[in-house]
Design goal:
Blueprint: E1 3-6, E2 9-13, E3 16-20, E4 23-26, E5 31-34, H1 42-51, E6 61-63, H2 69-72, H3 75-81, E7 86-90, H4 94-97, H5 104-113, H6 121-132, E8 141-143, E9 148-149, E10 155-159, E11 168-172, E12 177-181, E13 185-187, E14 190-192, H7 202-213, E15 219-222, E16 226-228
Helix pairs in contact: 5-6
């Protein structure tokens, strides 16, 4: 059995309502969750999985595409409940996820704080506090561009840096499906750079977007935005 399931999770974090799309990969040996939402979000993801007849007790791995709070916020809760689950990330992102290095998103937010208009300063303070309270977690397995993991018939790791330095995407080789994380979003139904104002390296983000478009996937899954079914097949 080789399959992937895209979850659609509506979640209110502070005053912000968001819809995210974690992905579950399953085969006879592995059950893998790709990204796990905001802090406090894992129980909602678990419920969504159960509604699709997926038992979280079978989880073997969780992949964190990058260290932003809406992708790794739920991983601490997940590990508290299911300590056997292996955490996977890129080598570049590992020190930020594990807390060995300060979050680059927090550094960015703190630098921007002085530039915010007065009416936005409290929002900036609140956002910095959210990032400071994010609980780090040990990474069990690190991966890099080109690694092929034996999940769901073969899963290729793609370096899609830009949004963060170590952002990764996953390509399901047999399914020809690309899980893009925050490397891509959909704007008016078309692939675009996700949140360019928060992107740490816009040039690399553009290169990663073009890399994904040319990769040859038949379907693209964006964490914010969902499905895109008109990918090129030039790979």
């Amino acid at each position: 059995m080789e399959n992937y399931i895209v979850l659609e999770i509506d979640f209110i974090f502070g005053e912000r309502k968001d819809t995210i799309h974690p992905v579950v990969l399953q085969d006879d040996q592995n059950l893998v969750l790709v990204d796990c939402g905001y802090t406090g979000c894992f129980s909602i993801i678990e419920k969504a999985m159960l509604e699709k007849n997926i038992d979280c007790k079978r989880l073997t791995h969780v992949v964190i595409t990058h260290h932003d709070h809406d992708h790794m916020g739920g991983v601490y809760e997940l590990k508290q409940k299911y300590p056997h689950v292996k955490v996977v990330s890129s080598r570049v992102e590992e020190p930020y996820i594990s807390g060995k290095m300060k979050s680059l998103r927090l550094e960015q937010a703190e630098k921007l704080q002085a530039e915010l208009p007065e009416e936005q300063k409290q929002f900036g303070i609140n956002f910095c506090n959210v990032l400071k309270q994010l609980k780090p977690i040990e990474v069990d397995i690190t991966v890099q561009d080109g690694d092929v993991i034996d999940w769901c018939g073969g899963c290729t790791v793609i370096d899609t840096a830009g949004h963060t330095p170590g952002h990764i995407s996953l390509y399901l080789n047999r399914k020809k499906v690309l899980i893009a994380g925050d490397a891509v979003t959909l704007i008016q139904g078309k692939p675009a750079i996700a949140n360019p104002e928060f992107t740490l390296d816009i040039k690399k983000a553009e290169e990663s977007l073009q890399k994904i478009i040319k990769f040859g996937a038949e379907e693209l899954i964006c964490y914010h935005g969902g499905f895109y079914h008109k990918m090129a097949t030039s790979r």
